[in-house]
């Protein structure tokens, strides 16, 4: 039982990943037959397959099944062309439009509804650590990292940020930042105010509830004879 106790949580995350990916691409979200659709999409689509293999590897490692986690990491690399450590912590709604060349290191922390495009590296800048000994980046929710970007070291990207293509991020940036260049510099700052942040958080929570409620079968009313 302990080996599969966390699988419903993995399936919940996969459904959020798939639904957010479809919503971002303008496709309808899965209906009440969602789990069969999730399985079929993970087999058919390389981007969802990559996320599914990461989720399973992370679950296996959390359960102490290190060999299974390593095997799933290897499957992820050979089947999808991405290297994502099972030790990385990635929130729901993770979107990988094109997983080829993506590298995410073991200590990376990535928030909800984050999009990472092809050939992005999120890793350590060896020799550099913060006061707590952290060597890997933290990326806030609703952030987009464009193709070829490199984010290294104990940096923090706030919520609702955008990292331009081929940028090299070696320092932290606040919420709402648009950054680009080598090394990355602040191009535009548009930090959301508290009311806008609260509205976005409420919208995300409403979206989560809609996704989960769509998964539950409709209740059938009792029909008494006569």
Q: What does the model show?
A:
The protein has 5 helices and 14 strands. With 226 residues, the protein is an alpha/beta fold. The protein has one domain (7-215): UDP N-Acetylglucosamine Acyltransferase, domain 1 (3 Solenoid), CATH 2.160.10. The strands form 3 sheets. It has a 5-stranded parallel sheet. Strand 13 and strand 14 form a beta hairpin. Helix 3 (46-62) runs antiparallel to helix 4. The radius of gyration is 19 Å and the shape is globular. The model is unreliable at 214-226 (pLDDT under 50).
Task: Sum up the structure in keywords.
single chain; 226 residues; alpha/beta; UDP N-Acetylglucosamine Acyltransferase, domain 1; 5-stranded parallel β-sheet; 5-stranded mixed β-sheet; 5 helices; 14 strands; disordered C terminus
Uncertain stretches = 214-226
H/E element sequence = HHHHEEEEEEEEEEEEEEH
Rg over CA atoms:
19 Å
Tally of separate helices: 5
The spatial strand order of the largest sheet comes to 1-3-6-9-12
| Number of structural domains | 1
Mind telling me the CATH class?
A: Mainly Beta
Strand content: 15-25%
Going by CATH, what is the homologous superfamily? Hexapeptide repeat proteins
Q: What's the architecture, going by CATH? A: 3 Solenoid
Fraction of residues in H or I helices? 25-40%
| CATH topology type | UDP N-Acetylglucosamine Acyltransferase, domain 1
Shape: globular
What structural category arises from helix and sheet content?
alpha/beta
Counted beta strands: 14
Q: Taking all residues together, what is the mean pLDDT? A: 81
Major sheet details? 5 strands, parallel
Distance between the termini: 46 Å
